[in-house]
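Structure first, sequence second, as always.
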């Protein structure tokens, strides 16, 4: 019965505790954890029922304004699960962890990333912002440290001196970004979730996540835009 199915067990509690300590988990890790929790607590385990298992947890998290959400890594298209705080949406959640000028640096970094062509901002551009903060200027050396912390805390990820939003940040801040960057924030034309790193059609301007580009155009010899049917001008990764 449905009432039975929605019961929180110690397996659910353990799963939630581990996810809380990680903040975010890759899909295969979450599946392993699901199995382990069920085995430890002798709870019925079905390998294809992770999403049901999580929705049971979510129904109990609802009054606490928390939710486990599923999202996709923009780099490789893998599923991830993150624990999201719905009450303190977006930047307010960070306010308890960072100083005002650190937050301002994060906001400005986010601006750079979202307004960029490819979803990345260079460390040089970010560090140049540190001198222009309204709250209190940060020296470059300190700003480098702050960026390191943002990466450790999974708000940003970094590759060869280029920064983008971490998968956790995208899952957590999707609504915030879509409502605060209405003119520039794009949804992927294929999976309809927020796309920070994307390829953009030169003719009609729609964006598609790189993993979605790979999947969508895999079978096409002459890739065409799913929206306007013009030939796709970007290189398929």
């Amino acid at each position: 019965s449905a009432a039975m199915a929605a019961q929180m067990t110690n397996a659910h509690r353990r799963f939630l505790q581990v996810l809380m300590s990680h903040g975010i988990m890759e899909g295969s890790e979450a599946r392993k954890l699901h199995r382990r929790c069920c085995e430890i607590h002798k709870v019925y385990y079905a390998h294809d029922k992770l999403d049901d298992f999580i929705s049971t947890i979510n129904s109990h998290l609802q009054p606490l304004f928390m939710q486990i959400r599923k999202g996709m890594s923009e780099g490789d298209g893998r599923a991830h699960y993150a624990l999201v705080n719905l009450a303190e949406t977006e930047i307010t959640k960070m306010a308890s962890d960072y100083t005002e000028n650190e937050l301002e640096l994060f906001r400005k970094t986010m601006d750079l990333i979202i307004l960029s062509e490819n979803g990345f901002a260079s460390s040089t551009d970010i560090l140049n912002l540190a001198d222009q903060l309204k709250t209190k200027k940060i020296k470059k050396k300190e700003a480098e440290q702050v960026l390191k912390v943002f990466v450790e805390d999974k708000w940003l990820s970094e590759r060869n001196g280029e920064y983008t939003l971490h998968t956790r940040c995208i899952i957590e801040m999707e609504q915030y970004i879509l409502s605060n960057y209405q003119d520039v924030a794009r949804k992927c034309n294929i999976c309809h979730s927020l796309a920070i790193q994307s390829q953009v059609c030169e003719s009609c301007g729609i964006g598609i996540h790189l993993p979605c580009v790979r999947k969508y155009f895999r079978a096409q010899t002459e890739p065409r835009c799913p929206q306007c049917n013009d030939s796709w001008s970007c290189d398929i990764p």
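Margin note: The radius of gyration is 20 Å.
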